[in-house]
Amino acid sequence: MTQYCALHPLDQATSLESLGDDRYRGRFPPSYFNMVGPFGGVIASTLLNAVLSHPKRHGDPVSMTINFAGPVDDTDYEILARPARTNRSTQHWTVELIQHGQPAITGTVFLAIRRDSWEGSDIQMPEVPEPAKVEVLDTTGYRPWMNNYEFRVVDGHFHPDGSAPAQRDSHSTLWMRDEPPRPLDFLSLMALSDCFFPRIFIRQQQRALVGTVSMTTYFHGDAESLRQQGSRPLLGVARAQRYFRGYFDQVGELWGEHGELLASTHQIVYFKSEGF
């Protein structure tokens, strides 16, 4: 497997060994683990890395959907990344993470060669204090994966000590970036799109048994947009729309520091309601 040397922790976690025939092998380090298994964002980034590293890659990511079909642990896994169809400017991929002989993660990735076009946006970046004016969240005592990020919560924080009452909604706004700082690219943006606390944690202000079932991230910036962002923090905005019979959704936006929407994300999440 690839030697880590002085790689950034994210690059270590998403490192893959090519096995040929559209297959790759890797293992997730304990530093990116969550409640059960690895942090979902780093799983998604690793699957994306298999596509972006593939010799048949054609274009840059526009969207990615992954489905968490089963648990992932800290043993070796294989990724199967296959181009399903390649057109003149677009390419569709199917991806699978296989562990212990069966698929744990399935997904699709859509790549495209972007053309110049009219640009516009129907939403605007919220007006918030600049990152330097917001206190850094102390992640001591949180899950290991959180130590790989710097969070500056503007509003909508989760207090794991139970010191806050239940909230009227789950809306939250925060600055976020890799820790140590890392220039933004598609891999880090994919992982950051899953960095929000589960919305039910914010709404109820207590932990619950939760697990993302399906997640889609749309990339609204190109490689040059991400390069210009550098290692500066992104502004994340997230909310839920409904909690119903064991599932809730989560909607998020990731904004560049100068107001450019770089990604949006949607999830459906399983939860157990006992104790609420």
From TrEMBL:
Keywords: Hydrolase. Residues 30-110 form the Acyl-CoA thioesterase-like N-terminal HotDog domain. Residues 132-270 form the Acyl-CoA thioesterase-like C-terminal domain. GO terms for molecular function: fatty acyl-CoA hydrolase activity. InterPro entries: ACOT8-like_C, Acyl-CoA_hotdog, Acyl_CoA_thio, HotDog_dom_sf, TesB_ACOT8-like_N. It comes from the Bacteria. SUPFAM superfamilies: Thioesterase/thiol ester dehydrase-isomerase. It holds the Pfam family 4HBT_3C. Gene3D superfamilies: Acyl-CoA thioesterase, double hotdog domain. Transmembrane segments: none annotated. GO terms for biological process: acyl-CoA metabolic process; fatty acid catabolic process. Belongs to the C/M/P thioester hydrolase family. This is Acyl-CoA thioesterase.
